[in-house]
Design brief:
The protein is an alpha/beta fold. It is built from 6 helices and 6 strands; from the N terminus they run βαβααβαββαβα. The chain has a 6-stranded parallel β-sheet with strand order 2-1-3-4-5-6, sandwiched between helices. The longest helix is centred in the last third of the chain and has 17 residues.
């Protein structure tokens, strides 16, 4: 698979590159665009402030420009938290998208979004302060209405970014389970 992997609001931290290496070791070709131009952050708040400063439209433009040279290959879009929301936006707008693999985050769905049975897999903490149960239920129904084939995996007791071993949210057991399921998802595409 050809995978476009987007980083979280913390920026292109080592965990994102380790995830890309893990995907490459499983036989996938992976690109990791740096939407923050090398900036990384120690807290979610710092990263969110930076995102507001740059603006969502500019960040999406950067993501589209990063993906454009490869989109004719039929990309799987993937990401962590903020990066998952970016991946979702791009996947829903790319008729050649092969799949969407999301860790820790979702995004609003544009009115009238439509995909032809796009395979989607979401891995999220339960509970998650950024992805409440009510929001996830609404998101799920909207994705299904858009035509996506959605699977949601919840990880009780895990922190928001549970796959990043350098953050306090890390949960090794949940991270390994999500990777095992996620890699299986990619193999099925």
């Amino acid at each position: 698979m050809n995978i476009m992997l987007f980083h979280s609001t913390y920026g292109p931290r080592p965990a994102v590159h380790a995830a890309a290496d893990r995907l490459r070791a499983a036989g996938h070709e992976v690109w990791v665009p740096d939407l923050f131009e090398g900036r990384t952050f120690e807290t979610v708040e710092e990263g969110m402030d930076f995102q507001r400063e740059i603006g969502r439209e500019e960040l999406l433009k950067r993501a589209v420009l990063a993906a454009a040279p490869y989109s004719d290959r039929g990309l799987v879009y993937a990401g962590f938290s903020f990066g998952a929301s970016v991946a979702q936006t791009l996947a829903l707008g790319d008729e050649k998208a092969r799949g969407l693999l999301m860790f820790h985050g979702t995004s609003d769905i544009a009115e009238g979004a439509s995909v032809a049975e796009l395979p989607v897999q979401l891995h999220v903490a339960d509970p998650d302060p950024f992805e409440t149960h009510d929001w996830l239920n609404t998101w799920y129904l909207q994705m299904r209405r858009a035509g996506a084939d959605v699977e949601v995996y919840r990880y009780p007791g895990a922190g928001h970014l549970f796959t990043d071993p350098d953050l306090p949210d890390h949960d090794g057991e949940a991270a390994e389970k999500s990777w095992r399921i996620g890699l299986g998802f990619l193999e099925s595409l």
